[in-house]
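Quick start: what a row looks like.
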Amino acid sequence: MIGAARHRAPLAAVVAATLLVGLAVAVFPPSTGVPATGSAQTVELDARRSAVADLLDTRARALLHRDETAFLATVDPSADEVFRDAQRALFGNLAGVPLEHWSYRLDARSADVTGLHTADELWAPPVTLEYALRGADLAPTSRPLAYLFARHGDRWYLASDTALERQGLRTWRGPWDFGPCLTLSSAVGLVLGRRGGEALAARVLAELGPAVAAVTEVWGTGWAGRVAVVVPSGVDEMQTLVGPGFAVGSAAAVAVADRVDNGAARGQRVVLNPAVAPSLSQESLRVVLRHEITHVAARAATTDGAPLWLLEGFADHVGYRGGDVPLAHAAPDLAELVRSGGVLTIPERADFRSARTMDLAYQEAWTLCDHLAERLGEPGLVALYRRLAVVPESSASAVETVLREETGLDLAALTAGWREFVTARLG
């Protein structure tokens, strides 16, 4: 059983809704024009593009086949030592990562390369990394790379991945950019961590299979049924992986996705907070993982801007489901509100963003979804989620229409029933 004080900090605000981050840090200017077909400029561009594409293909094959010599041969020998050392470290750090796919996609446009490097020729086209983790990703996900290429004589090299930062173009960083990776795998996914973090990674792996099964039992089989959990080495790494727009301080974990294509979410990851996760009890860790994996399972059916009380409450319903934590311990702010004569209200989006109201908002959302599950049955709760998770929270009338059609109650009646439900559970 989890004590209220111990439980409150890590779990009252376990996460925000799944973030569709994309992390599109490298934004290149639009092309200023396409040379006329057959012109000398076109021939030159085609030759340059072919040479750099071959370079990137060589680089990808070297990574997949663990050929360090071939990989480092793609790096400009005249590049600064920091970059060359970083590339050598990158290759080594990826040794523990099970890659199903790794390739690069090249665009023909270029950023301004004036004065960036000494070479016979420079080129900075947009490059997209496409990669997939074996046992977790059903299809590759993509990330932007702000690469600068240099030609010396008749050979092209990768000269830098930071030179374009002054233009606001940044290379996406994966876990392998921060240190050597270790991977623990299971039939339902993997845990990608860092050397020195074996104990936490093993704890996560022990919960992964039961968590996926628990989520599937509620949501159904219409999702990948695989999860990649990343355990960063520090908060700075976590911030890089989840994006700069998310405040990671109080979150135990965050579920992120690259994008949703044709009803399938790409690049989904559960990222644990290294400042919080190691101190979680096993029961707390179980709740956190089931909460986050619920976001992963439901992501393709969820639209950004849907009611957060539904997204977070549903994830907490699955997270706490089957546990034996008394409500007064798991939801101390809600219990205090009821016992002091306060009035429960359906939390608004802003309530989940304020440190003052966040804990209570999560607890209200969770118990509201528990009440809906009791009234509708879990299949009914899932059906409500599928309908309401594509409705903008800002459209109050549309939200209420769906609630009335799925529950048979207007908002006032639903709220009254929820208050009675909570009061009865608190005894």
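That is the whole record. The longest helix spans residues 40-64. The two ends are 18 Å apart (CA to CA).
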